[in-house]
Amino acid sequence: MRDAESGRSWRLNEKWRLIREDRADEQVIQEILQQIESAWNHYDSVSLAAVFAEDANFIHIFGGQLDGQAAIEAAHQNIFETLYKGSHASFLLRSICFLRPDVAVVFARAHVKFKEGNEAREMEIHPTLVAPKDQEKWQIVAFQNTKISEVPAAAQAAARLAT
């Protein structure tokens, strides 16, 4: 299938999801994750918030919701000065699912190193984000951070099915 407007090719995979024949937009989405990582590691809340749409929603690892780019920027400025001062993060793209040629659901993995008092800590996170492309620009409109925690014994069988 070919998009008449852009000339790009698409095919459907076995799950009936669109798969791009070219990788340009996938590269841009990878660059968004790289910008988040770089901004985090430079404690630059303005650069981090720049990848989000003005009306984006961000759910952080504690379950709170930040509404709008300004709130995302302010909250990250706060945590860079307090809870995650001196921290280091790395982000890894796990997969992209294009719902349409201009809408992507992105699954990533993040690793954050930080100090709690004088004690070194680390945590793993699964960020999931929705990014539409508007006027040739990809921006995040929804971001869900899920902290990976120890699975209770009763849920071990189900946990073995997860990736």
- Give me the CATH architecture, please: Roll
How many separate domains make up the residues? 1
Strand content: 35-45%
Largest sheet, strands/sense/barrel: 7 strands, mixed
Q: Could you describe the 3D structure shown?
A:
The protein contains 4 helices and 9 strands; from the N terminus they run ββααββαβββββα. It has one domain (10-159): Nuclear Transport Factor 2, Chain: A, CATH 3.10.450. Helices cover 25% and strands 43% of the residues. With 163 residues, it is of the alpha+beta class. The mean pLDDT is 88. The chain has helices spanning 24-41, 45-49, 69-81, 156-159, and strands at 10-12, 18-20, 52-59, 65-67, 88-100, 103-116, 119-134, 137-138, 140-147.
Task: List the keywords.
163 residues; alpha+beta; Nuclear Transport Factor 2, Chain: A; seven-stranded mixed β-sheet; two-stranded antiparallel sheet; 4 helices; globular
Question: How is this structure best summarized?
Answer:
This protein has 163 residues and is an alpha+beta fold. The protein contains 4 helices and 9 strands, in the order E-E-H-H-E-E-H-E-E-E-E-E-H.
List the helices and strands and how they pair.
Layout: E1 10-12, E2 18-20, H1 24-41, H2 45-49, E3 52-59, E4 65-67, H3 69-81, E5 88-100, E6 103-116, E7 119-134, E8 137-138, E9 140-147, H4 156-159
Parallel strand pairs: 3-9
Antiparallel strand pairs: 1-2, 3-4, 5-6, 6-7, 7-8, 7-9
